[in-house]
Write a structure and sequence with these properties.
Low-confidence stretches: none
Distance between the termini: 6 Å
Shape: globular
Strand content: 35-45%
Strand order of the largest sheet: 1-8-3-4-5-6
Number of helices: 1
């Protein structure tokens, strides 16, 4: 697994449902600083073709929604862009999780 800073992602890069992101240094009371993060996944919203949501998938806040992300206007594909993610998530301590 590799963490890529969201700021290093192209505004035009496209992401589909299931893509994961991590916000680190969130202030959790943990012994190991490497465990101080929330992890979010892009998920579809049933019946909504304008937005996807970033849903927490790790820890005691699993299921909580961080933000809505505007879907690219191309109605043939449900994708969001790097630019839309940056707007919705911000750039501070925010990473794309790239699986090996």
């Amino acid at each position: 697994m590799e963490l890529i800073p969201l700021g290093n992602i192209s505004d035009n890069e496209e992401f589909w449902r299931g893509t994961r992101f991590r916000i680190v240094g969130v202030g959790l009371n943990v012994k190991n600083k490497n465990d101080d993060y929330y992890e979010y996944m892009l998920t579809e919203i049933s019946g909504n073709d304008e937005y996807m949501q970033l849903t927490n998938v790790v820890g005691n806040k699993s299921g909580s929604i961080l933000a809505l992300v505007k879907i690219k206007p191309d109605k043939k594909r449900l994708v969001v862009t790097g630019q839309a993610l940056k707007f919705s998530m911000g750039l501070d301590n925010t990473y794309l999780i790239k699986e090996d």
